[in-house]
């Protein structure tokens, strides 16, 4: 599967991927997680969405952009039909490589505190927890990974 910049023709696939990937968290959080209500049309227009897929299939996607000294990884998801195949790590590695090539010092991200799987995944990938706070109606855990070029 290739990673490429998203096009408007990917919009339906991205929405479907977000819904499928994040629906399991609705009961835990008590509402739809932020990625389920993201403005993907605007984000695609801004050029900050990349999709992982083949042909018209969107197996996963990442939303990221430069912010200050780092790249902010806003959202990464893999459709459940394609999970446990290493695609999530492939997307995160793609973002990290983008950050290195852009001269960024780090990649930063946050996850919902109720997405407990992520709280163990990100440290395994070299991300250090920076803090926790309530933001935009969600309890978020913030992570940062320092990069070396």
Question: Which features characterize this protein?
Answer:
globular, Aminopeptidase, 7 strands, alpha+beta, 149 residues, seven-stranded mixed β-sheet, 31% helix
Description:
The chain has 149 residues and is an alpha+beta fold. It has a single domain (2-146), classed as Aminopeptidase. Helix content is 31%, strand content 36%. The chain is built from 5 helices and 7 strands. Strands 1-2-3-4-5-7-6 form a 7-stranded mixed beta sheet. The longest helix is centred in the middle third of the chain and has 15 residues, at 87-101. The model has no long low-confidence stretch (mean pLDDT 95).
Describe the structure concisely for a colleague.
The chain has 149 residues and is an alpha+beta fold.
Would you spell out the secondary-structure blueprint of this structure?
Elements: E1 2-5, H1 11-22, H2 26-29, H3 40-45, E2 49-54, E3 57-67, E4 70-78, H4 87-101, E5 106-112, H5 116-124, E6 128-135, E7 138-146
Parallel strand pairs: 4-5
Antiparallel strand pairs: 1-2, 2-3, 3-4, 5-7, 6-7
Discrete helix count:
5
Structural class: alpha+beta
Q: What is the overall shape? A: globular
Return residue spans where pLDDT drops below 50 for at least 5 consecutive residues: none
Major sheet: 7 strands, mixed
End-to-end separation in angstroms reads: 25 Å
Strand order of the largest sheet: 1-2-3-4-5-7-6
């Amino acid at each position: 599967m290739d990673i490429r910049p998203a096009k408007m023709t990917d919009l339906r696939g991205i929405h479907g991927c977000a819904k499928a990937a994040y629906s399991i968290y609705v009961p835990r959080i008590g509402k739809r997680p932020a990625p389920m209500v993201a403005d993907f049309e605007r984000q695609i227009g801004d050029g900050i969405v990349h999709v992982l897929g083949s042909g018209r299939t969107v197996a996963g996607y990442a939303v990221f952009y430069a912010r200050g000294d780092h790249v902010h990884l806003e959202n990464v998801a893999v459709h459940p039909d394609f999970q446990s195949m290493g695609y999530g790590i492939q997307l995160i590695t793609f973002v990290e490589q983008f950050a290195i090539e852009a001269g960024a010092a780090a990649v930063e991200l946050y996850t919902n505190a109720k997405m407990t799987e992520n709280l163990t995944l990100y440290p395994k990938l070299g991300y250090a927890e920076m803090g926790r706070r309530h933001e935009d109606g969600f309890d978020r855990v913030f992570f940062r990974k320092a990069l070396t070029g």
